[in-house]
Amino acid sequence: MFVVAGGNPSTRIAEILAILASSYTEDGQPVFSEIIVVQPPGSAGPEERKSALFHHLGEAVVRSRGTALETAELDVLSRRINIAVSPDLQVASVCSIVEAAKQHAAVVVDQGALYRGVEPGPYGARPVLGMVEDSWVPHFAALCEGAVLAARASTSYVAVDANKDWPLKEANQERLLAIDGMAVLAGGDPDAPDAILAQHLAKWSTAIARGVIGPILAEIDTLPSSLDGIKPLLKVQMMHKAGLQPMVEQALRAELGLIENLAPVPALQVAEMAAEAGATDIARNLVQKIAFDRLPLESIEAALTLSKRIGEPGTIQKCEEILQERHPTSLALMHHRGDAMLEAGEFIQLARLLVTSPVEDDRRMAGFYETLAAGLASSELDYQVLTRAVIAAHPRQTVRARVFIAREAIRAQRYAEALSVITEDAETDVTASMVTAMLKALEGAVLGGDKAADIEPQLLQAAVLLGLRYLTSHPADARVRVRLVDALSAESMGLFGIALLVDTALKLASAPLALREIEALDAWTTAPPADDIAAFLRVALPWLQSASPVFVGRIDIPKELLTQDADKLVAGIRKLLEHYEPLDTPADIENVRNILAIGMAVARHGSVPDADLSLVRVLAVRLALASRFQAARDYAEHALQVAGESKARSRLAWLCYGDVYQRTGNTIDGMVGALCCLAADNSALPDQVFYESVLLYRLMRDLRMIDAGLSFLDAARKALQSFGARDQYVHRIQTLELQARFIQARQDPADARERLEALIPDFIQNARTVLTQGDEPAPAAASMAEALRAAELAGVTPPPAAIEAFERLLDEAHAPLRGIIAASRLPHPTTAQVLEVLKQIEQARDANDVGYDVRQISVLARRLLGSAEAQTNLDIAAFAIDILADHAIPSLGVAPDQGWIPPTIESSGERAVELSRSMQLPVVLMGVDAEGHLVRCVAENGKLGPTLKESAEVFSEERLRRWSREFPFRYGVDEDALNLFHTSTEGLGVEALPPRAILVTAANIQHWPPNLIRLGGGFAGQTCKLAAAPSLPWLSAARHRKSTDRRAIAWIPKEASDEGGQTLQTVVDRVSEPLAAHGVSLDTASVVPSNLEGAELVIVTAHGGLVPGNRYFQVVRDDAELRMAGADLGSALKNVGVAVLFICSGGRLDPHPMANTTLGLARQALGNGCTTVIASPWPIDSRIPSYWLPTFLKAWDAGVPVIDAAFDANARVRDAFSSELRDCMAMSVYGDPLRTREQ
């Protein structure tokens, strides 16, 4: 046995051959009858292999005796030395060659560590910190043991070269030394990276388990300079092991050059880390470059698993081919093929495959799949009856039975039955496969594709409850959470999703709940003096610094560092976090993070160790109140990550999540968090019940379900009583009750004045109580500010006591909150106040969160827009409208400046002027002020025009609201009403518009199609070339967008329905010729083409559908069975230059019901990087494309901007097909109006 990797392996084999070939007996006969070199399979042919072998043999002889082989010697050796190529890399194949050798032959096995035994190994990826030797030593030992037995059987000699260094781990060394009948020649490099890693691995792993990472990173820096090249990756490995995934991604992106030329195994390890850190682009880039033929079996199997996870089909195929060639019995390969059969529903084939598995559990499962296949073959299939029968036959496979039968029901588009199957047993532990099947059925159901039945609300609620039950046990599974939230969103269900969540909340809240007592209650709730906490932090913070970076929530603080009782320290740190300020700079955020890390570490030593999650919630809420919304969301996510598997901890973590997302305005996520609290555990601490009840009240208040909300305040009051804290905190409930009474007063216009006036004394008393208790004054101050403002607008003069109480509350409030509360008190806040509040808002990491983050500032901006300041100062009007625009769409390309928040009051106007100058196109800014007046100004000819306020006769916000209940959908379906366009749009106009312009409007009026703006007795779309953009920053970024790949593609899924519907086939017949004439490739398959991304022009013709109630774009359909969510088509249009969508209502935008943004297919496309969308806001006639497209494509080919090409194409429809406004004004332009074909 040779286990020494130094030098060239071919040279080492040649040295062995030279020794064997020169061995003779005393009578001059060769010792070995023949010499066989066993080589692994590969692409080299027999002559090439032999030539290379004898080349190295000749060099070995020269080194040994100083002279080259003579011709006669070469002839003899060529007859004595033969090459046997193993058919695969299985141990059994090598042993067969040894056993078949002649008597007294010598067999030399090359690269023995490549071979694998038939025994199954673990399926899945090898841990990143595992030693490479752990993957080859067991198999190499099996090869040597088998070769010894085979050599004894054939009376031959065998030498096996591992081409590996002697293993570093003692257990692996002993494994090889224990092989009977085989001598060992071993060697290794003590300074090799693996040797260094082995020396430190145990110690590092122990430290990481304690949450300590800083000293490890420092120790890596002290390793020998010869390891400088791998030190950054060693640090990344440690951070990955410690769970610091954001730091892993950051480090990998900072070291892209370092990971470019990694060896195959390290490249795979780094790809695994990148994938787990969310950097799938890095993972894909790495696996695409890996030389898979140089990987051992386990790594190829891991690469296969990883490639499937990150969606890299090319590497999946490569791994499959290599495994088939070299390791055909690989368990991973078998499971991979089994997965494909499962996906296709080929259960009989799967059963036949599993019968051959070396794993007993696999063989046992074959019978299950045979039963399943037989049941599914029935001509009269009842999925629930089948489920019960299969479970009765295979009770240990209950979950699998439900999942696979539900999948078959989904395949048959029987979504209601799939949901019934998967939700029938409410007691079964919910697995990832169950919730995935449920979500797929739910998504299919809400898209209206069920062939057999309507979906009952109770069944949808059961599905939601199943998802909630899963999330309570797996709080860190963000993928499932996001899919559940998406399924419940307005785009999927309209407002029914919220109604479903509310009904579920009322159901869960009515379930019995046991209150757990808190040991050492006084110590846990009573904070020590601030000086005591400061003294402790002076000890703890240096310790934390020495251990940094740390995973917050997983680090242990030495008990000897605690300066007093742990519960008291936690109570003090909690109070410090509640009142910490300032929170303005990155240094402030870092400081408060360190305090939280220490508090969470201390909580482990207290009587309530789960209090660490309460600390996370306290800090997250504090950050949300300070408009540090992104940091608050990050901590909410962090709470879910550190919750673990405990039901009690899950409940606390979900409370944190729900609390934060409600405060940031995201009602659906907030509801999911609150419901997961209720579903997680049937017991809770009384203070937790209080906070949960208050959260549910706030959610109901946001939905204006005041009576339901007040019922939760009753529960909160009872929780305080049981907690012994009623006198201390009941004013918090009183503040919330005053909020509810204020909202009810506003909802009663007839008696609003009297009811508001009657509330003022109660607000005064509440303010005094809050101040006396020394509690956080901001909630009371915010409620009182709105009440005083509303009362004054209603004609009530607040008494001096009210003004004094409010001002005292304001003075005591945290600094970040004083500005927004003071501004909300005024009918028209000043520009300086609005700018101050705006600058406090933290930039969101995900643009979709911006619409929630700006809800409060949007209220102030509307009030500012109606102020005298805005009427006289053009920059202020532009500034207010800029804030009100839709910033919840990711910017494209490379913008000149990052972020959407204007740094100064003048910035918005300057940006509009610069855009108008660079585009040579007027930029029209429009918004609606708090009184419902339309305010507009135009940037044109290098300057910003005057601020103009439309009269109520020209534009009315109330008329727009009423219009939105039926339109624009009704335009496409009502052919009977006379003069419908004119009668429905009275009072929805402006006095004037430029003849060619781009409109940037407030998000809450972006659903008003530009072509429908009334200009006197006509419409803007008849005479003006108009386009609309989401916001000024988006438009700036779009103008800097990089080039596309110049492809032009059309997709028209033409499959006919069973009833013979062939609308789209007719469209294909009509447009095929002009598409071909202009070089547009046509795809008519029933699945969206995978190659749309990055195309210059994409044309899609299909049916479109809205959520029931005719609001919110929901589904793309063909004439047959295709049902695609609008979001999926939007994703397929990623980075497209221009998308022309002949899809009913494809250009429709709807105001988001809970955020300052819009919803719709066009918005989805723009949000995925599409630069320009041309689509209709209402259902369109299927004949329009054949008239519209030829004119548009001719102009497009000539380099005409889309704003002009679309206008001309609409005119062509008017002149050649129909002058009905629903036909000739349908196609509207969204996004960059000047996009042209690249010449």
Shape: globular
Cα-atom Rg, whole angstroms?
36 Å
Strand content: 5-15%
Record field, number of beta strands: 26
Arithmetic mean of pLDDT: 91
Q: How many separate helices? A: 56
Give me the CATH architecture of one domain, please. Answer: 3-Layer(aba) Sandwich
Biggest β-sheet description: 14 strands, mixed
* CATH topology-level fold name of one domain: Rossmann fold
The helix-and-strand class reads alpha/beta
Unreliable residue runs: 121-129
State the name of the first-level CATH class of one domain. Alpha Beta
Fraction of residues in helix: 55-70%
What's the end-to-end separation, in Å? 67 Å
Keywords:
single chain; 1239 residues; alpha/beta; Rossmann fold; 14-stranded mixed sheet; globular; CHAT domain-containing protein
